[in-house]
Specification:
By secondary structure, this protein is of the alpha/beta class. 43% of the residues lie in helices and 19% in strands. Belongs to the LysR transcriptional regulatory family.
Length: 301
């Protein structure tokens, strides 16, 4: 079959220009000059016999025909990209492309990964740490560890562990002695900007504080835990992030019961069924999380 369009370069230039609404931005994405992209789009229009864009002094705007073609090209290119990704994974069956939150990756996952590698040296874990809501398929991952709330979950999303929170502090904050619940108001209380984490724990433990000293706030749990480690105050920390520091003695827990607001770690996969290696890794993650719960019992009064 002989296709009507003889070159894909014009379609690629058109797709980029349509998505950005700019020939300049399209050129930047494609690594070409603005003039080259403009000529490719014009060549495509000449071949088709109708205009795809209305050209204005500082922008371009899709015509009705351009919008229709842009939709078809987008769907076709996404289909090709998905197929290429699938084929690449088949040719690298022992590679797991993994995405995880920065704090979770640094504080929890990386200290434990050597155990998985020792047990399964044939599997290559390629970890990328980022905090956006990742599109596993579009970004080429096999698995992402993300967070969300308990409830009905879409296909490909498996709940793993409900996060728990405890107030933690460095031994140096109180010269090595234990800080009790009754002393919370005597120290800076650090946490997220959202004080519901502190309020939830206090309510869960029946504690009322008069004029508490809410200190600095942090956007990431890893920053919060590190601040607590250096003695900046008592931090309301997620136990997954604080676990290693509790186990090795850099942090202690204020006596009390862990609280939870329903936040849950999820395993997000690229498809169903998942590969044997991805399923194996998810099982290992769950085992490690379960073991962490057991290990932490001795540090939580």
């Amino acid at each position: 079959m002989r296709y009507k369009l003889q070159s894909l370069s014009g379609l690629l230039a058109f797709d980029a220009a349509a998505r950005h609404g700019s020939l300049t931005l399209a050129a930047k994405e494609l690594g070409r000059t603005q003039s080259a992209v403009s000529q490719q789009v014009k060549g495509l229009e000449e071949q088709l016999g109708f205009a795809l864009f209305v050209r204005k002094p500082r922008e371009i705007e899709l015509t009705s025909a351009g919008r229709s073609l842009a939709k078809a090209v987008k769907q076709a290119l996404e289909g090709i990209d998905d197929k290429v990704t699938t084929l690449m994974r088949r040719h690298e069956p022992n590679v797991i492309r993994l995405s995880a939150y920065h704090s979770f990756a640094i504080q929890w996952l990386i200290p434990r990964l050597p155990r998985f590698s020792m047990a399964h040296p044939e599997i290559d874990i390629r970890l990328n740490a980022d905090d956006h809501q990742v599109d596993v398929v579009a970004e080429g991952y096999d698995l992402a560890i993300r967070g969300g709330w308990l409830g009905k979950l879409p296909a490909g999303v498996t709940p793993m562990r409900v996060e728990k929170y405890m107030p933690v502090y460095a031994p140096c904050l109180a010269d090595g002695r234990e800080i009790t619940v009754n002393e919370l108001a005597d120290y800076p209380l650090i946490g997220y900007e959202d004080r519901s984490y502190w309020n939830g724990w206090l309510e869960h433990n029946g504690v009322e504080l008069e004029d508490p000293d809410f200190g600095k706030t942090y956007s990431h749990s890893g920053l919060l835990v590190q601040a607590a480690v250096v003695g900046a105050g008592i931090g309301m920390a997620p136990l997954a992030t604080a676990a290693q520091a509790l186990i090795d003695g850099r942090l202690r827990c204020v006596p009390g019961k862990p609280s939870s607001n329903g936040f849950c770690f999820h395993a997000v996969t690229a498809g169903d069924p998942v590969s044997e290696n991805v399923a194996l890794f998810i099982d290992w993650l769950q085992e490690e999380m379960d073991q962490m719960e057991v290990d932490l019992q001795q540090y939580i009064a």
